[in-house]
Amino acid sequence: xxxxxxxxxxxxxxxxxxxxxxxxxxxxxxxxxxxxxxxxxxxxxxxxxxxxxxxxxxxxxxxxxxxxxxxxxxxxxxxxxxxxxxxxxxxxxxxxxxxxxxxxxxxxxxxxxxxxxxxxxxxxxxxxxxxxxxxxxxxxxxxxxxxxxxxxxxxxxxxxxxxxxxxxxxxxxxxxxxxxxxxxxxxxxxxxxxxxxxxxxxxxxxxxxxxxxxxxxxxxxxxxxxxxxxxxxxxxxxxxxxxxxxxxxxxxxxxxxxxxxxxxxxxxxxxxxxxxxxxxxxxxxxxxxxxxxxxxx
Length: 297
Description:
mainly alpha; two-stranded antiparallel sheet
């Protein structure tokens, strides 16, 4: 009989509940999510201070935008999940259940089910509406946000792992990759959440750092993020178990996550084509100095 390592048995010993407060269970996932929000805001604030001429956004505007974007992400992620992965018709007819944290017996069970791609749509809508109402430069806000997301995303995926959710595909016990697996209900599975944290978070952030140096036109950072994330997610989906209610599609056996990643990649490509065909006037040194003074006020 195979002897399992401490890593293989991680879920056997780890409790996803960090602590209980006034009868409510606080999960590690929730703490990771809050940490991700704070980290994203910290990175965005740092970028504004370090590169004021590049983004030309006031700090007070960033704080307001952060709230708009977060509301958009939460609404988009939740509604997107229900429309794509669940019984969307039921929730459209009973919208008060979308964020209902109690089950039919009145027990507090929390809110489960958020779609990243749905969150992207909600984020884009919130950003567009915010910039339209406040008369702010849309592409600069998108560039700032997409540069701030990847490292924060790492915490989100670690939260998924600690919360015992979004499991990876099954690994054969005699496979050379068995040492990577984590036992879930007696089956050895890839820790796909951590693969996603690395590829979609750390690697994409490194890509954004390189792109920041060479992509000077407003909007190009958003393109790099969209394409980079889509490619990373597409690869990670080969290690992640598809949602049981969805399965795999077509002769290639693609998951819904891969299909949505293709759509995201194409969307980023269309944005690149649009930006590439637009004239980009050179920004004079005088204008850059003026921007710096405005941002420091």
